[in-house]
Amino acid sequence: MNEITTDKKKMLFCDYYKQWISVYKEGAIRPVTMSKYNMAHQWLLKLIPDLPLDELDRITYQKLLNDYAIEHERQTTMDFHHHLKCAILDAVDEGLIPRDPTRKAIIKGKQPRDKKPKYLNQYELHKLLDDLNLSHEINMDWLILLIAKTGMRFSEALALTPKDFDLSHQLLSVSKTWDYKGGSGFLPTKNQSSVRKIPLDWQTVIQFAELIKNLPEDKPIFAVNKVYNSTINDLLARHCKNVDIPIISIHGLRHTHASLLLFAGVSIASVARRLGHSNITTTQKTYLHIIQELESKDIDIIMRALSNLNS
């Protein structure tokens, strides 16, 4: 038994990590998350291909993170650290590494690039929607409109079929996603909270009632052919340039949708449900800057209300 343990200790860390991914992660996580673990393994092969498991100490691990951070921003380095840490802690539990080398690790990273605008204001969104080519047949401009009106994720919108539209009740069911990266068709939603019904405005209901009436019930409306995220982002960028507004991504339309709702006074809980967030904390973190802006407006309202009270 000791010999097996000794052999395992002498195992290369990159091999141990690959084995750990296969045992604990394969089939248990979504393909997109799995690809991140596999990418971390590729970086281990590049940075420390010959490091034995039992030689992984704090200095070696910190040097690994530092080398990774040379080419990546701090948040990406943090993600890399988290992907490795789970496997390393299991190796510590097995007695393959004497002490936790990830303890007190310092996360560094390249200076973040200038952030692109994440969302449009109401005036800018109106200009964008006015520029869309909303013909009598389904095209990708309709996809842009629908994401702007619902805040759906790109993969959720691609998975929509005519059956998902409950037009009489003005509801849109989100119960699946479309694997536009891997090409395997329908996939489950990001989490259980992502399964939801989104209320639609009457104008969108009328428009889509006409568009989908002759389409197959169970076939995707938008993913008729291979669809690339970059193609839709390019299309969206052209519309933004046409009307001289900030260029945002298709995911930025989701942020735009949520931002407009928050500025309109919709509660964080309702926005979280509409977006399919697993908890309100996710919504609060993502839209902290807007929430803080709204809080400062609230303070003005509170002060005005209090100053009107007679003593």
Structural description of this entry:
There is one protein chain. The strands form two sheets. The protein has a three-stranded antiparallel beta sheet, covered by helices on one side. A two-stranded antiparallel sheet has the order 3-4. Helix 2 (13-24) runs antiparallel to helix 3 (31-47) and helix 12 crosses helix 13 (280-286). The chain has 14 helices and five strands. With 311 residues, the chain is mainly α. The longest helix is centred in the first third of the chain and has 20 residues, at 74-93. Helix content is 54%, strand content 5%. The chain has two domains: 2-93, DNA polymerase, domain 1 (Orthogonal Bundle), CATH 1.10.150.130; 122-297, Intergrase catalytic core (hpI Integrase, Chain A).
What features would you highlight for this structure?
311 residues; mainly alpha; DNA polymerase, domain 1; hpI Integrase, Chain A; three-stranded antiparallel β-sheet; 5 strands; single chain; 2 domains; two-stranded antiparallel ribbon
